[in-house]
Amino acid sequence: MTLEPLTADRRRQQTRDYLLEAAARVFAEHGYHGASLDQVAAVAGFTKGAVYSNFKNKDDLFLALIEAAYSREMTALKETLEHSDVPPEARLGDFVGLIRHEMEQMPENWGALSLEFTVYALRNPVARERLSELEEADIRAIAEIIENGRMDRGLDTEVGAENAARIIVALFQGIGLMRVIKPETLRPDLLEDAMNFVARGLAVVP
Q1: d(CA 21, CA 44)
Q2: Domain count, the chain
Q3: Residues 98, 195: one domain?
Q4: Cα(179)–Cα(194) distance, rounded to whole angstroms?
Q5: Which of 124, 132, 170, 174 is 20 to 30 A from 96 in CA distance terms?
Q6: What CATH number is associated with residue 156?
Q7: Alpha carbon 59 to chain centroid, angstroms
Q8: What are the pLDDT digits (tens) for 34-44?
Q9: Is 0.70 surpassed by the pTM of this model?
């Protein structure tokens, strides 16, 4: 097997990935306000300078975590949609498994961390704008998938693709927050019912 050379770009990406993984652990343990870049560097096994060479500050690092989560979720969703000829509405179990898996990739208190950062961002215009940009990009990506699916199948619905995407994001963000308060909330039957609810909301109109 041919090994790919560890180029400078790959090395930088590896460093960034290690820092993001370490940051997720540190934020989960200490909360957004209680965490420090020194702690992230120590957990990752790098100097604080390595953190600053990849992220401007703690805000930038936390926002990068959010962006990475959105990117990973979108990749998983597209792969789930593309790797089967079975209509999505007949594969709700696949999507339940996907959502559960993606939620489990993040700390159990991720909903609380997101809420903590959101409250902070409300008082910090720069963080608020960046957070809004990330969420809007995620909603647009989901809306594009919905719209493309409708066009491919010649479907039409009463709810526009963008509004449908916002409702879906709000629904699962809410489930994530409920998981923080009561971890056993994240049951397969709840996720299945949520997916059925979404599917009915996206049902075709004659």
Answers
A1: 8
A2: 2
A3: yes
A4: 14
A5: 132
A6: 1.10.357.10
A7: 17
A8: 999 999 999 99
A9: yes
